Amino acid sequence: MVPLSWYLVLSAILFSLGVFGFLLKRNIITIFMSIELMLNAVNLSFVAFANFWHSHPAKLASGVDVVPLSGHVFVFFVMVVAAAEAAVGLAIIIAVFRTRETLNVDQVNLLKL
Amino acid sequence: MVHQVLFIVFGLICVAGAVNLLVQRHPINSALSLVVVMASLALIYLLLGAEFVAAIQVIVYAGAIMVLFVFVIMLLNAGSEERTRGSRIALFVGVPGVAALAGIVAWLLVHSGGQLGGVTISSSNFGETHNVARLLFRDFLLPFEVTSVLILIAIMGAVVLGRREN
Amino acid sequence: MDTKTFIIVAVIKIALVVFIMLTGVAYTTWLERKLVGRIQNRWGPTRVGPFGLLQPLADGIKFILKEDMIPDNVHKGLFILSPMLALTMSLISIAVIPFGETITVAGYTTALQISGVTHADGLISDINIGLLIILGVTSVGVYGVALAGWSSNSKYSLLGSLRASAQMISYELALGLSLVGILLLSGTLSLRGIVESQSGTWIGFVPRWYIFPQIIGFFIYLLAAFAETNRIPFDLPEAETELVAGYHTEYSSMKFAMFFMAEYVNMFTVACLASLLFFGGWHGPTFSFLPPIAQALLPVLWFALKVFFFIFLYIWIRGTLPRFRYDQLMAFGWKFLLPLAIANIIVTSLIVAWGA
A13, B108, C221, C295: least CB-packed within 10 angstroms? Predict the structure, then answer.
């Protein structure tokens, strides 16, 4: 039996590594991948808590039962949103690259070329 | 016991992939490390009994979204990133800071972990597809339809933004 | 059975299945050369052994002894990794494919499937998401193709691999959606469960195979699978006359052999899936006068015959049809197969809901 806190610590480590990459890296695609890493860390928390609530059933303050599988459904929605965001974000990156010829975010700092 | 060993192995692979994503300078290596992270996360989801979510993680995330990333990196072919001066200072202050913060959070979580309880590999059909589907298509039907509209908007946006100006 | 026996039995099953499959793949190349040769009114291999039957052995020796060249400016890690990734992903899908019911050898009863477990009361449990695992492995297999072309640092390879991966991810959608009709009828994602829901007959002699209600799904699946495995008529990315050799231009000897084997193992997986999902898997006439071991292996024979039929179909189409142009190929996948698959799902779900 693995304590729930281990899963949360792994999720926290992945999330902080994602924040790290987002703040420190200069290549726009690597920044994007750090965002995906953060979303994956959050998914891990959702799934871990879904399992936890399944083995420790509980009620909310209003008396409604906690639905354990809603964690899995949330992960599904997070993945869909991540897919949509990746598609549009990469299209923007391609459009920016066509005019500025660089993927370095430090050099994309003026609205006019 | 087996559960703990498997979790530690997959967790280490996960963290190693994430660290490799930050350390590598060419974006293609970072992309492939992220694929390794997603695959090991799919294995951890299997440990947590979430079989449908694990399958979707591989099919959608590692098999479609990351392929999109690899395509864009191959198409743009911009090469390795150069070292800039400013980020070195942030590296020397930031890394110990984040490590200290993460260490404090980890210590707190692990020490008060007894009050939280544990997760198990249970033999029940907890994360089975029809259970998730029942929830998705009954209680969460409205968000499901909204996400389909969201995907439609994303498709249109990607097509419009990716077009060449003629 | 206890853990040690379980592991030993599993290792034996894996070794046997992989050996049989790789031998089958090697002789599929022989069959292809013979059949395509006959279709084109020539003999095919005849020199090496009777009827050219030792030709795959000669090819294997040639691949091992050839010089293994790595060109200068390639991205070395990915260049070596891509064929291994392609072959590994192809081989993983054999782990969830069931060949028959159970077999009892020397007192040990085991399911005829690498990932199948026999319980004490005779029930066989399978992986609940077997079909999703095969779809996932197909999705990850795109990486082998995409990275091979990019790491070769050559125009033809990059163009061929971009075309091949775009084709593969486009037809993955039609492939997945064509299988939803079967899932609606069978109600389970486990491959053994799908085969078991095809048991029995209508009107006494027509077997309840899913080819009859899902004939459109079957054709969509077959076309999408042909495109996924990059076979004629969808093999523009690796056509010899078009792009030199596409994404495996720069590969030689063992690495090229790995791509070659990966393509044939993919063909084999598609054939196995088609016979499991649409043709009832291992269901066929059984005879109760046979000894138990033959009774356990007879379904495997029926399964093998169905798989052989699909491989024959693959080779037959290769010898007969010309290939699509790339824009025709993409238009066919997106504008024809995908709407047809969605229409199939709508009609199937209406009929299932009306009948329930």
Answer: B108
Q: Say whether C189 and B129 touch across the interface (CB within 8 A).
A: yes
Burial of residue C116, with CB atoms counted within 10 A of its CB: 0-12 exposed, 13-18 middle, 19 or more buried: buried
Mean pLDDT score, A98-104: 85
What's the number of domains chain B is made of?
1
Nearest to B58 among C139, C169, C189 (CB): C139
For A59-98, how does the pLDDT look when each residue is reduced to its tens digit (9 = 90+)?
888 888 888 899 999 999 999 999 999 999 999 999 988 8
3-state helix, strand, coil in chain B (%, to 5): 80, 0, 20
**In 10 A of CB B107, how many CB atoms?**
11
List the domain range (segments joined by +) for residue A26.
4-107
Any CB–CB contact under 8 A between C123 and chain B? no
pLDDT over 90 percentage in chain C: 46
Query: Chain B residue closest to A1 (CA)?
Result: B120
pTM of the model: 0.91
Residues spanned by the domain of B133: 128-166
- Chains touching C, CB cut-off 8 Å, 3+ pairs: B
Q: What is the 3-state secondary structure (H, E, C) of chain A?
A: CEEHHHHHHHHHHHHHHHHHHHHHCCEHHHHHHHHHHHHHHHHHHHHHHHHHHHHCCCECCCCCECCCCHHHHHHHHHHHHHHHHHHHHHHHHHHHHHHHCCCEHHHCCCCCC
Q: Quick check: helix, strand or coil at residue C128?
A: coil
| Chain B residues within 8 A of C165 when measuring between CB atoms | 67, 71
Domain range spanning residue C93?
A: 3-355
Q: Do chains B and A touch (3 or more CB pairs under 8 A)?
A: yes
pLDDT at B136: 92
Alpha helices in C187-291 (DSSP H): 191-196, 215-228, 253-277
**Overall residue count recorded for chain C in this entry:** 356
Confidence of residue C242 (pLDDT cuts 50, 70, 90): low
**pLDDT at residue A101, rounded to an integer:** 84
For B60, the closest of A83, A88, A94 (CB atoms) is A83
Reported confidence tier of residue C244, pLDDT bands at 50, 70, 90: low
Instruction: Report the 10 Å Cβ neighbour count for C352.
Output: 14
Question: A12 and B102: CB-CB below 8 Å?
Answer: yes
Total count of domains within chain C: 1
CATH code (residue A101): 1.10.287.3510
Tokens of residue C10, six digits: 């599993």
Q: Quick check: is B141 in a domain?
A: yes
Are C93 and C134 in contact by the 8 Å Cβ rule? The answer is yes
pLDDT greater than 70 at residue B85 = no
B 80-119 near C (Cβ less than 8 A)? none
Q: Tell me if B135 is assigned to some domain.
A: yes
pLDDT: is B68 or C121 the higher one? B68
Query: How would residue A26 be classed by pLDDT, with cut points 50, 70 and 90?
Result: confident
Contact: B67, C139; criterion CB under 8 Å: yes
End-to-end CA distance of chain C: 41
* Overall domain count for chain A: 1
pLDDT band at C267 (very low <50, low <70, confident <90, very high): very high
